[in-house]
C-alpha cells in the first residue's frame, strides 16, 4: 500500500475508522481529483463548441460544405 490509499473498497464517501486515507480526510486533507471527470467535462465542452461552430450562421452546415447528409457528431 502506498501513501494516501484506502485500505477498503468503495463506500460512497463514508469514512472508515482505521483506514489511513479516511483518517487523513477526516483531518481535512483534500480529496484526490479524479482526472476522468475533468476530461469528460473538457471533452463535452469541445463537442459543444464544435457543434455550435458547425451550425453557426455562415458555418459548414449553413453553406452546404458538410455534404448532402450532415454527419457532424457521428463518431
Structure in words:
The chain has 75 residues and is mainly alpha-helical. It has a domain of 31 residues. The protein is 37% helix and 0% strand. The protein has two helices and no strands. The longest helix has 21 residues. It is rod-shaped. The chain starts with 19 loop residues before the first helix and ends in a 20-residue tail after the last helix.
Percentage of helical residues? 25-40%
Helix run count: 2
Largest sheet: none
Oligomer: single chain
Distance between the termini: 40 Å
Proportion of residues in β-strands: under 5%
Unreliable spans are: none
Secondary-structure element order, N to C? HH
Structural class: mainly alpha
From the spread of the alpha carbons, the general shape counts as rod-shaped
Q: Indicate the mean pLDDT.
A: 86
Cα-atom radius of gyration: 23 Å
Q: Count the E strands.
A: 0
